[in-house]
Amino acid sequence: MVIALRKVGALRKGTVEPAPSWVVVVTWLLAIIGLGISTYLTVVHFDTGIQIACSDKGGINCLKVTTSGESYFLGIPVAVLGLFQYVAMVGLCSPWAWHSLRREIHLARLAFAVVGMGFVLWLFSAEALIIKAFCLWCSGVHVVTFIMLICVIRTVPAMLGWTEPAEDAGTAA
Q: Is the pTM of this model over 0.85?
């Protein structure tokens, strides 16, 4: 009963429930790691004098992946899109953003996490099916994006009152 009232109250008043502190720390660290890798991939993309630190032979071939036609989306280098994604996520996953009462911030975090994972699925498919090679740096971003999505999906809907909060789920009698 308490959970039901809490959910209805959150939906009606437009309030935001607090996020667990571990989610705040983990997502901010993930966003910083994603920003670091994306920055490196963007620099390597534009500075041809820098050789990417990864194998360039066989199934693990970062050079083949990062210079393929699939390394562009609508004429924009995927590395730049990743950089944009993680600049935004560093801000959206900062402790200050997680503690914000503005629902738009939490909705933006959710949207960026979902869209980012959509790109990861597309890029992974391209690596496996078209390029037939994988980039370890890209895979690092993919793993970070996936873990980020799990954290955000498990937290933001409950914060916005769309579901029962994770710590209270199943305790209503």
A: no
